[in-house]
Automatic annotation (TrEMBL):
Annotated source species: Acinetobacter albensis
Domain of life of the source: Bacteria
SUPFAM superfamilies (UniProt xref): Bet v1-like
Record protein name field: START domain-containing protein
Membrane-crossing segments per the record: none
All residue ranges annotated as the START domain in the record: 36-204
InterPro entries the record matches: START-like_dom_sf (IPR023393), START_dom_prot (IPR028347), START_lipid-bd_dom (IPR002913), START_lipid_transfer (IPR051213)
Entry-linked Pfam families: START
Signal sequence extent: 1-19
UniProt keywords, alphabetically: Signal
Length: 213
């Protein structure tokens, strides 16, 4: 498996535990994609939960998300992703990401620590969080330190998988709250749409990390 390890995100940003306790609003429901937004009392920035169902195998969906080299093709605002370390046996990895924000906003970067797991029911999860170490700060970027993001993949049939993504991130800097919350609503929707397109292109046989076999 060449340079495979998640992206998250690509700015797939936000905490599952908060999603279970906070009041959620269904912000988008179209093209078989649902996006819920919610807030906690500590932060005015929205978190999100998004889900859809694809007519593909769970292996193929997971492999796409773990394919770092292709992440910039379908993850909105993803400028670049670099694998700093990975352990396929343990399902652990460390990434450095640059987020390409629209002008005049300054681009963001972050170091992401991730964990891949498969439970007894066959549900695959990818959990990510930002850490404040592992890569030198670049003065050209605003470093994000407060980020959490999860993916889950549930096999519904031989060629059908439910994909969910959750996230939260503090964008740092002086960005209007209205813009940030609009970004939080639209980014997961656009990402899941583009993910469907990428899944339709790929014809290769997926190879998952050893931790998921």
């Amino acid at each position: 498996m060449k340079k495979e390890i998640l992206m998250v995100c690509a700015v797939a940003m936000f905490a599952t535990a908060q999603a279970k306790t906070a009041e959620q609003t269904l912000s988008i429901n179209k093209n078989n994609i649902k996006v819920w937004t919610y807030q906690n009392s500590q932060n005015p920035v929205f978190s999100y939960r998004a889900e859809t169902v694809y007519d593909t195998s769970i292996e193929k969906a997971v492999s796409l998300v773990l394919d770092v080299e292709n992440a910039v093709k379908w993850v909105p605002y993803m400028g670049s992703v670099k694998v700093l370390s990975r352990d396929d046996k343990k399902g652990e990895f460390l990434l450095y990401m640059v987020l390409d924000f629209p002008f005049p906003l300054k681009d963001r970067d972050l170091v992401v620590q991730g964990k891949i797991q498969k439970n007894a029911q066959g549900i695959i999860s990818i959990k990510n969080k930002a850490i404040d170490k592992g890569y030198a700060k670049n003065p050209n970027y605003v470093r994000l330190n407060d980020y959490q993001g999860d993916w889950t993949f549930q096999k519904l049939a031989n060629n059908k998988v439910k994909v969910s993504t959750y996230g939260y991130a503090n964008p740092e800097g002086s960005i209007p709250l209205k813009f940030v919350n609009l970004f939080v609503e639209q980014q997961p929707y656009q990402m899941l749409q583009k993910m469907k397109t990428e899944l339709g292109k790929s014809s290769s046989v997926p190879v998952l990390p050893e931790a998921l076999r």
